[in-house]
């Protein structure tokens, strides 16, 4: 597996949201909402819409959106915590990824399919920069309302941007922002701060 494929796999796991196995009970909707919005900027949390899981494991709207953000709750099948919030204009792109995964397409093929659909004009994708906030950790603690070992990073989608148009490197360089998949419909700026010391 190439380094880019590994990075793609890491990014897409969170946003895939396949149906849950029947034996996995999701947390209560209020706990899913409280945990999911922690990925959003503090001043945007109250109005963010939340997609989470019902008792049958189906991805559903747990809270309607009152601002520009949609948050995706943690998949309770995963051992570690993963939540994300993104600009509402990215929802067609995200929803299409979930749809393609439900059809059984591998991760790289899902990305390539969406990129082609964007290029063909059949999948909406904003041309202005739009941000995805990704929060990972070991677990959400409902008693404290915090994610243990929390780590937040950002992805800024800039379709068809290049290293030349952004002035950014197109390969990782320590913790500096860099442009992944340049000159494609899926071009995005990766912003990954240093992880806190244990």
Keywords:
198 residues; 26% helix; two-stranded antiparallel ribbon; globular; eight-stranded mixed sheet; single chain; disordered N terminus; 10 strands; alpha+beta
What does this structure look like?
This protein is of the alpha+beta class and 198 residues long. The chain contains five helices and ten strands. It has helices at residues 3-16, 29-36, 91-102, 107-120, 163-166, and strands spanning 49-53, 59-63, 69-72, 81-87, 130-137, 139-141, 146-148, 151-157, 178-180, 188-191. The strands form two sheets. Strands 2-1-3-4-5-8-10-9 form an eight-stranded mixed β-sheet, with helices on both faces. Strands 6-7 form a two-stranded antiparallel ribbon. Strand 9 and strand 10 (188-191) form a beta hairpin. The longest helix is centred in the first third of the chain and has 14 residues, at 3-16. The radius of gyration is 16 Å and the shape is globular. The protein starts with a helix and ends in a 7-residue tail after the last strand.
